[in-house]
Amino acid sequence: MKRLLVLFVVLFTVFFSYTIIAQEMGAARKGVSMSFPEKVQSPLGPPLAAGTYTIGTGGNFPTIDSAFKKLSIDGVAGAVTLELINTLYVAPTDTFGFFLNGPIPGAGPNSRVILKPAANKNVIIEGNSYAVMYFMNTSYVTLDGVGLTGATTLTIHVIKNTQFLWNDAVDFMNNSDHNVIQNTIFINEDYSRSSTGPAFYPEFFAGSLFAPDSNLILNNFVKKSAIAIYVSAEFSAVKAIGNIVRGNIVGSETDSLIGWGIQAQFTQNTIIENNVVQNLRRQGTALDIIPGINSYLGNGDIIRNNLVHNIHADGYRGATGILLSGSGGNLGNNNLVETSEKLIDID
C-alpha cells in the first residue's frame, strides 16, 4: 500500500453537482411502504410537570415505552428530563422498537424533553427491529449520552435481524424538527446492508409535505454501521432544511466496520463540519460507491473542516473522500466544500 499525505488549503464554491454515471448511485437507500400506528389524540391524564423523572426498575416509569406513551398522549408542561437508571434496556421486537408517536403536546423551545443516562450509569439500549428507537413527528427532543467515555455513557446497540430490510439505531421521522442527538455511542451489527446509526428521514413513500428540519447531530461516535449518519428528505415533496452534523467520529483506527460515512440526501443548507471520518470499506453489496461524506441532490449544503481518511476502494464501485452527487438530470447547486487538511490512503 502506498500512502500519500497531502496538506493544502482549498476554498471553493461548487455551483453544480457531479452526476454519478449509475442511476441512484449517490442515494444511500430506497424507500419502502410502511404502516405506522395511529396516534391517540385525546389526553388520558395531566401533562408531565417540569422536572426530572427516572425510567427503569423502581423509577417513575418502569420502561421507556411507558414514558414514551405518556409523552405522546399527555405531553409536557415544561422542560422535562428523563433519566435512565438501569444499565440495559431491550426494545420491543415489533417493527419500530421503542416508538414515540409525536408530536409531544406542549414541547417547544423552552420545554424540551431530554433523555439521558443517570449519573454514573453506563447504559445500553439495544434492539433488532427497523430501529431501536423510532421517533415519529417528534420535535424538541434531546438524546444525550453525556460522554463518549467515563462513568456516564449511552450506547445504542443494534442486533442484525434479517426479518427486516434494515436495522437502524435511532430514527427521527417525517416532521421531526429541532432535535439533538449528542455524546452517544452507536454500534450497529447490521453493517453489511443499508442500516444506519443516527438518522433523520421523511415518511417513506408517503408524499409528505414535511421533512426533518433544524436538527443537530453532535459529538457522537459511530463504531459500526453500514451508513454512519444519514439525513434525508428524498421521499418527501420538500427538502430537509438547516440540519447540522458536527464534531462526530465515524469509524475508529482499529476496525473497518463502516461502509458509508455521512450522507446528506435531498437537503438544503445542511452543515457538515469538524467531523472525523476514517477507516471505511465495503462490508456488503447493498451500497454503491463508498464516500466519506456525500451531499446527494443538495442545495446550499456546506461541508467544511472535516478530516476524511483511509477510505478503501474495491472492485465494485470504488471510493471517494468528499462527494457532491446527483442522479440523471437532477443536480444539487450552490454547495460549498472547504477543507484545510486532506489525508489520502491509496491501496
Structural description of this entry:
With 347 residues, the protein is mainly beta. It has a single domain, classed as 3 Solenoid (Pectate Lyase C-like), CATH 2.160.20. It has one helix and 31 strands. The strands form four sheets. The chain has a 16-stranded parallel sheet that branches. An eleven-stranded mixed sheet has the order 2-30-27-24-20-17-14-11-8-5-4, with no helix packed on it. The protein has a two-stranded antiparallel sheet with strand order 1-31. Helix 1 (64-73) links the parallel strand 4 (51-55) and strand 5.
Average of per-residue pLDDT values:
85
Q: Say how many strands there are.
A: 31
What is the name of the CATH architecture?
A: 3 Solenoid
Distance between the termini: 5 Å
User: CATH topology, which one?
Assistant: Pectate Lyase C-like
Low-confidence stretches: 1-25
CATH class: Mainly Beta
Taking all Cα atoms into account, the compactness measure Rg is 20 Å
The number of helical segments is 1
The major pleated sheet works out as: 16 strands, parallel
Provide a concise account of the structure shown.
With 347 residues, the protein is mainly beta.
